[in-house]
Amino acid sequence: MTTPPPNQAGFDRRYDVQGLDAIDVAVLDTFPYVREDDAAPYVGSPMDIEIVTDEFSPVCPWSGLPDFGRLEIRYQPREKCVELKSLKYYLTSYRFVGIYHEHATRRLLSDLVGLLDPLRLEIRCDYGMRGGLNTVCTVRYVAEDQQAGQP
């Protein structure tokens, strides 16, 4: 197989991408961590919530081609939990946003911390192979009042 010449049709193709303003933070919604009508005490350690999807797909800012990532969200709620349908719409809003893997992962953390004010939150995204390289980005947040004894 030979390398196509630079003037071959499609060789310099690039798809248009949307900017960061297309990320729909406003669609995110929450519900209370503790039900007001539940008189039973919630005993034990704080709950760990894990949300996983293989359908996170922002696009490459250079080519506009989709990147597919396995997204893992882990958090300990303080007062609010993220509503899943709204989270799905939020994640889908990245579909045409041109953003680097590292920036997308940090943006997810920032938006969810702003929404939830959790005790702890971790975002991990495995973006899979591209050009023989695999990128896995992990970012963490620990609330200030939870940092006693943290390195």
From TrEMBL:
The keyword Protein biosynthesis does not apply. Substrate binds at residues 82-84, 101-102. It is found in: Cytoplasm. Pathway: tRNA modification; tRNA-queuosine biosynthesis. Its EC number is 1.7.1.13. GO terms for biological process: tRNA queuosine(34) biosynthetic process. GO terms for cellular component: cytoplasm. The active site is at 60 (thioimide intermediate), 67 (proton donor). It catalyses: 7-aminomethyl-7-carbaguanine + 2 NADP(+) = 7-cyano-7-carbaguanine + 2 NADPH + 3 H(+). Keywords: Cytoplasm, NADP, Oxidoreductase, Queuosine biosynthesis. Transmembrane segments: none annotated. The keyword Isomerase does not apply. SUPFAM superfamilies: Tetrahydrobiopterin biosynthesis enzymes-like. It is an enzyme of class 1 (oxidoreductase). PANTHER family: NADPH-DEPENDENT 7-CYANO-7-DEAZAGUANINE REDUCTASE. Catalyzes the NADPH-dependent reduction of 7-cyano-7-deazaguanine (preQ0) to 7-aminomethyl-7-deazaguanine (preQ1). Belongs to the GTP cyclohydrolase I family. QueF type 1 subfamily. This is NADPH-dependent 7-cyano-7-deazaguanine reductase. The lineage of its organism: Bacteria, Thermotogati, Deinococcota, Deinococci, Deinococcales. The gene is queF.
